[in-house]
Amino acid sequence: MARWFITVCCDFTILHIEEAFPTSIKNSAIGVYFAMGMLGGVIAPFIITLANEKSLSPVGVLGLMGFMAFALICMMKETLGLPLKEQIPEMERERRMSQTQSERKSEKFVDVFTDY
To answer: Which single residue of 38, 65, 105, 106 has CA 20 to 30 Å from 56?
Structure first.
């Protein structure tokens, strides 16, 4: 059962990477994902050994790390209904537009309080 959950998590992560990155760098992003997975496979036994030496539950330590990863993924932008980006300049242009919109909102917020 645990292996099934791990497989499902990996599949969903790959799907999310495919939606989050433009076409020109998707393969590189997936490669980095798999490299980090291999690095995690190398580091995991050391984490378990360290947890046993410090009288911590290895399952709890690894579970906490998984929960932290889940929390970081939840903070990512939703892509439902948005067109997928093809090139990096499209992402940069969108990021600049969202930054200027957030700056405008903050300016309006400041203007409301400076009027009084």
So the answer is: 38
Question: How many whole angstroms separate alpha carbon 53 and alpha carbon 19?
Answer: 41
**Residues sharing a CB contact under 8 Å with residue 79, sequence separation 6 or more, in sequence order:** 19, 20
**Tokens 């992560």 label which residue?**
13
Write the CA distances from 3 to 13, 66, 83, 87, integer angstroms: 15, 15, 33, 35
Position 116 scores a pLDDT of 46
Which amino acid is located at 4 in the chain?
Answer: W
- Residue ranges per structural domain of the chain: 2-83, 86-116
- The answer to whether 88 and 25 have CB atoms below 8 angstroms apart is yes
